[in-house]
Specification:
cell membrane; mainly alpha; disordered N terminus; Sodium/glucose cotransporter; 570 residues; two-stranded antiparallel ribbon; Na/solute_symporter
């Protein structure tokens, strides 16, 4: 076996100081707003008084959207599969435009606090409760995923339990004390930390690899710059079509109709501010995306001849980025701590926003339905108590999940598989005015069933290399201790296609579909089934279906009136 080939340092005092500052400042923001808003009613706690401006909300949306999965996972993905990851910028653009022009106007003008209130207004209470429960499952899974810092102990010497516990406690602390205002302003601060951390890696990494021209040449020779692949095969992991189309459905499902996102948009003082926040947020998304992609290219150029993963210096691809950071910044006390703070900033922002959103939907969709006539003081205490409950529960589950690596991937799968059907459900209500409650319930059921069928099947039968297309990774430049010949790691499916394992056609087709299409499958199933069931069960639907008397003018008139729902601003 191989031995580690690089001499890496561990965290020193200055790294811990820089890292601790992130937690201190984040907690301080929570304390500040707790003192500043201590006399305001519960509505201030839940939606920031609906007086937020576009600037901090835009930074908050970007910080929570770009979690530690982006900071660590995206560079690793570019390192292994190439720069096609940058095409997610196309998906982000579509997602932001659709959210700003279609979904936000409906939610904002409705004057709601929980997005699922709209489902009761549009359909019925049962559909609202079902959607809320699905959202809670989806969001708890997301938090458990993001709280698992399994990359830290091996690479930095961090204690895994300590990192999970510290993050969970800090998020719960400032969410409970300061509410949405604390979440938004803390996210804005953490966004700055993320950009500074990325820029530190980009500058030092480029210098270590011999300059930008050298990075570009090495990446080009390693096929990392083959970005545009127009193969329409839905089984391929990343192509132009899977990323731009599948990525749009995936992120729209967890962005356009997500309580965490919409809650911050409706906290803006005007609808214009809400839209501007989304468009400014798009600029932030693209900046972080470009930083992540270039970090991956620089990391590949640095390890082009001695891949730490193939050489078994790291045990998982997610460890590559922190390993690289310790390699290039280890001689500068405080800078490794800055990058880890960058990764933690993404996690803090996402987890905090999710805890706040969970508390909001639970209060609005369950507590207020059961306990009417609550005073503002009682509402405030209940909301803060819910933040504590969800924070403690998710932190505990994350610690348990750290012992079961598979559950982390399962959590990510659940998160993606729920997004498509939820997007379909809201689309039925907003875009198709004739959809009834039975159609909504039936469509959601079928969408969830198909999404979970594809997702769970893919979890049991992972896609083959011929579909994922990992690029070659070399260890020719490594100093081998137990081997006389250097080797190069090449995906076996390219060397000998006849060596592919024999599997059922279901596993090779349905289960091998690109993970980015799970949400699209759920969306299409929900919308299609919802429309068909509505036509069959609704008298008006049957009449329209039989006579075909609906004109485009009627359709757009109904749709416009739906979007112009009277305001119920509190």
């Amino acid at each position: 076996t191989s031995t580690p080939y690089f001499h890496l340092g561990t965290f020193v005092s200055w790294d811990y100081v820089v890292f601790a500052c992130l937690f201190v400042v984040s907690s301080g923001i929570g304390v500040f707003f707790a003192v500043k808003e201590r006399k305001n009613p519960s509505s201030e706690f839940l939606v920031g008084g609906r007086q937020m401006t576009c600037g901090p909300v835009a930074l908050s949306l970007t910080a929570s959207f770009m979690s530690a999965v982006t900071v660590l996972g995206a560079p690793s993905d570019v390192y292994r599969f190439g720069g096609s990851f940058v095409l997610f910028g196309v998906a982000y653009t579509f997602v932001v435009i659709a959210t700003a022009e279609l979904f936000v106007p409906v939610f904002y003008r409705s004057g709601i606090t929980s997005t699922y209130e709209y489902l009761e207004m549009r359909f019925c209470k049962g559909v609202r409760m079902a959607a809320t429960l699905i959202y809670i499952l989806q969001t708890v899974s997301l938090i458990v995923l993001f709280l698992n810092f399994t990359f830290l102990p091996t690479v930095t010497g961090f204690n895994l339990w300590g990192s999970i516990f510290a993050t969970g406690v800090v998020c719960t602390f400032y969410c409970t004390l300061g509410g949405l205002k604390a979440v938004v302003w803390t996210d804005a601060f953490q966004m700055v930390v993320m950009v500074v951390g990325f820029m530190t890696v980009l500058v030092q990494g480029t210098r270590k690899t011999g300059g930008a021209a050298s990075v570009w040449e090495v990446a080009k020779n390693g096929n990392r710059l083959d970005i545009f692949d127009f193969d329409p095969d839905p089984l391929r992991r990343h192509t132009f079509w899977t990323i731009s189309i599948g990525g749009t459905f995936t992120w729209l499902g967890i962005y356009g109709v997500n309580q965490s996102t919409i809650q911050r948009c409706i906290s803006c003082k005007t609808e214009t501010h809400a839209k501007l926040a989304l468009y400014f947020n798009l600029l932030g998304l693209l900046v972080i995306l470009v930083c992540a992609v270039f970090s991956g290219l620089i990391m590949y150029a640095f390890y082009a001849n001695c891949d730490p993963w193939t050489a078994q210096s790291v045990t998982a691809p997610d460890q590559l980025m922190p390993y690289f950071v310790m390699e290039i910044l280890g001689d500068y006390p405080g800078l490794p701590g800055l990058f880890v703070a960058c990764a933690f900033s993404g996690t803090l922002s996402t987890v905090a926003a999710s805890i706040n959103a969970l508390a909001t939907v639970t209060y609005e969709d369950f507590v207020k339905q059961c306990c009417t006539n609550l005073s503002n003081k009682a509402s405030g205490w209940i909301s803060k108590g819910l933040c504590i409950v969800f924070g403690v529960a998710c932190t505990t589950m994350a610690v348990a999940a750290s012992y079961m690596g598979g559950i982390v991937q399962a959590a990510l799968s659940i998160h993606g598989m729920c997004g498509g059907p939820m997007l379909g459900l809201f689309s039925l209500g907003i875009i198709f005015p004739w959809t009834n409650s039975m159609g909504a319930a039936g469509g959601l059921t079928l969408g969830i069933a198909l999404s979970f069928w594809a997702g769970v099947g893919a979890f049991i039968y992972p896609a083959l290399d011929i579909n994922t297309r990992p690029l070659s990774l070399s260890i020719e430049g490594c100093l081998q201790t137990n081997s006389s010949d250097p080797t190069t790691s090449v995906p076996p499916s390219y060397l000998d296609p006849t060596a592919l394992p024999s599997r059922s056609s279901l596993a090779d087709r349905w289960y091998s579909m690109s993970y980015l299409y799970y949400s699209a499958v759920g969306f299409l199933a929900t919308v299609t089934a919802g429309l068909l069931i509505s036509f069959i069960t609704g008298t008006a639907g049957l009449l329209i279906f039989i006579t075909g008397t609906v004109s485009p003018v009627y359709y757009y008139t109904v749709l416009w009136s739906c979007c112009k729902t009277p305001r119920r601003r509190h």
